[in-house]
Amino acid sequence: MIIDDRRAPDQEPEPTETSPLLEGQDEVQTSQRLSRSRIMRFQRAHLALPVVFLGFMSGTITTTTSIQIGNVIACHFWYSTHDPSKIPESGNIPEELCQAPGVQEMFARIVQIIVLVDICGAVITSSPIGTLSAKFGRKPLLIIAALIFAISPLVLLVALYQGSLVLIIVSTAMAAVGGPRQLSLLTTMFIVDVAADPGPILSILEGSVYFGLAISFALGGLITRWSGNLTYVFWVQAAICTVLLIYIIVAIPESFGWEKRVARAAEIAAERSRGRQRTSRPTLSRSRSVSIERVQEGVQESASAFSRPIALIWPKRNPMTGKRNKRLLLLSIGVLLAYAGSSYAGTAYLVYATNRFHATPDQNGYLLSAIAAGKAIYLLIFFPLILKAGHRVYLKNRSRETKPKNSLGSQFDAHLLAFSLLVESLALLGVGLSTNKVAANTCMFILVLGSGSAPCTSALVSASVEPLAQGEALSAIALIRSIAEFLSPVILGSILSSTTNTRLPGLVFLVASILLFFAVGIVALIRDADRYVPPDNAQPSNVDASAEE
Question: What is its main location (predicted)?
């Protein structure tokens, strides 16, 4: 298998008197071969797009039906514990009884628990996915995640037919550890592995997510309304997941081949060897030493699945300059602040618009669908063109410098990320200051122009570490994002609930805007000089490599 070392520069010897006369023709043929190989790499990268489209479409197609089921469960549970006499012999509680305040409070708790389980699944699996995909490859983990995802609706169907709350919890947990979030992370790794310039394709990837969401929200409700049965949509979900699994097995190649896995394993072994030398301990008796070391190695092996990707974020000392490289640390802080400020903003706006502007559920649904469609169009069509044009201008302006291939507009990606976060910050500030529904909805729609932050973040991560460690770095940033998504409802939700009936009902959006504005300042500190530079492009240095910490 050939390792695609796309970031190694082409070393071309200068022509001499003995150079062959047809050397130019050879160069043209070589250039044509490189062009064809680039096209093939981009075609391989595009193979991953149906994975996230089908994954997010199937993951959210049951949303409206799941809300109905959650309401029914909350209603049965509340009356069985508070007033069993009101439950008919048929077991079907009238809908008006399910509107009681106690039932609705329990329903809100159930929805909150489901959301937290989904986020916790992403937090738990992000780091192990990075570690295991570096050890076994991307495709096996894609297959495992898709298989778990395909089984989860079948478990839920069994739970609905048998009325088992335990199986519903099991199905929710399975979807949390093997669902759209995990598929999205693995497909991002795949694209970064095979694409020379991953930014535009990552934008299309994110656009595919919103395209799938826009279709699923409408399709799920139509299926349930047309069939009159709550279980039909879960059969459709299981069918889509099965198609997704078959597609991954048949169409997705392995992007992190055996040679790359062996090379990465050698790097990890060398890092552990240096760590043992720095933390050498006094020797114990032979029998006790062997047993203790085996236990310690087992614990360290398990812990490394979580800790090794996170360790990439911590600043390392650059042996060339002697300074610590804080690029990934700054990016992580920016991601933490940005998603803490933006993740809960959409949900907060639904509550805010309903309470202040008396928006109806249909109006809120139309707004969410319009925003999702706008983001899909922007990320699928316009943002890739912006990235390509920006990279071209960036490289043209800096053509006098020797730039490695992995820096294809890397600093432009940082500028574009800061711009996207700034747009989100100003849009949420506008929502908080709006005095009518039209102005607030307009500001929410402006968020479409800030939706390019996710592909820019992934592109910056891929340009910050060596190619063999890109998957683990992406999983580390995904973990930070999941933590921020967990904190966002805690921070913004508490502010929203405490200020809804005050003179500052829009305070939650002002706080979200401030968090995003701080993220802009952090991202602005990212330097192009701290990007990853292949050893062949580095200047020789007498600094001992062991100085790296």
Answer: membrane
